[in-house]
Amino acid sequence: MNRSVLKTAGHSFRSKNMSKRVQNITVSAIKEMMLLASDIEEPFLLAQGIPAEDTPDHVKKAIIEAVNGPHASKYSILSGLKECRQAVATRYKRKYDVNFDVNTEIGITAGAMEACMISCLATINPGDEVILIAPCFSSHIEQVLTSGGIPVFVDTDEKNGWCLDMNKIKKAITKKTKAIIVTNPSNPSGAVYSESEIRELAKIALKHDLFIIADETYDFLTYNKIPFFSFCQIPELKKNLILIGSSSKEYSMTGYRIGWMICENDILNQLFKLHDATTVCACVASQFGFIAAVNGPQDSVIELVKNMEERRDLICKRLDKVPHLFKYYKKPQGAYYILPEIAFPHKDSIQAAFEIQKATSVVTVPGVAFSPMGEHHIRMSFGGGAVRGPKGKDLINQAFDKLEEWGKKYI
Ligand SMILES: Cc1ncc(COP(=O)(O)O)c(C=O)c1O
To answer: Out of 8, 82, 270, 379, which could bridge 365 as a Cys pair, Cβ 3.0 to 4.6 Å?
Structure first.
């Protein structure tokens, strides 16, 4: 199934002398749509997940001070500044009352993205199967494929808020299964898996000795006070767990590229080989920013969650007015994405996203990017952040004004 927007748009990709590996993957359609949108003069950017809120002032100040100080121009040690690893440990102690050893169990990466990529490279052998809960984060597909793995998509139940089907997951496990990648809360579906579901997944992983690669980038962002339960709260899973997190969304630091990976030391030592081979260390000035973010006031996070919930309600309200264009079953429970079905006549989700973009300058992501189950859906972010054009609620309202006007022809 073609999931490359750039290929569909006619971009050329050399195959002569290029590796099979690179020919087997695509740029995530999220970024492909952003690339194509760079030509639009006044875009309405609902594609990439960026918070509308600015980086908190005390974080910016710490970064500026770091830039003017003695450390930012130099590499940090491979694992990240000790104070930065300590900030990660502090975050988990505060949030989950779980202790991690700052010296042996935490590595700072260039975003959660790097942590996911090197976790896949370090655990997957060519031909290994990796279970992805579908629809899944598009980059996880490319990371599994880059590692030579075979993505095994286990579909969720869309009508019931994209919830998990444990029997389907159990049935998908074979002798070749190596890992389960779990994104909770889910990008793109907005599902939040419950404590009992997370415990059940951990049980399955332990029974079959599989890795759980847990991408908990949005662990701080659930709505209506839905509790979040982290894999790190299951001590017996620790030997099979690579826990991944990010500063990008919680502290509006997407451009600063700070994420982390947490796991037992003998796994981490393997991950560091790949971190060294690709990145050496995360941006040092940004590490200082993250230290300030964790150790400073947390009001900005409370405010961000409140704003996101309002934007979630707004996008759902606007979607409710255009049932002839899009259909969704339940409001997202976490993260800041919604993945409605496409209700207007269309060939596939890439063509539909192109049509929307051409007619309205509203930039979305074709659902096929998120597994075959995502086909005939469109992902919209209500993060509200955009490098160009309107932001926040204005962005959602103006984008939907355009969509409503254009969609009249389908009534
Ligand atoms: C599930 C998930 N993981 C990872 C990332 C990337 O995070 P980072 O900016 O820390 O690399 C994103 C960004 O949208 C995401 O949605």
So the answer is: 379
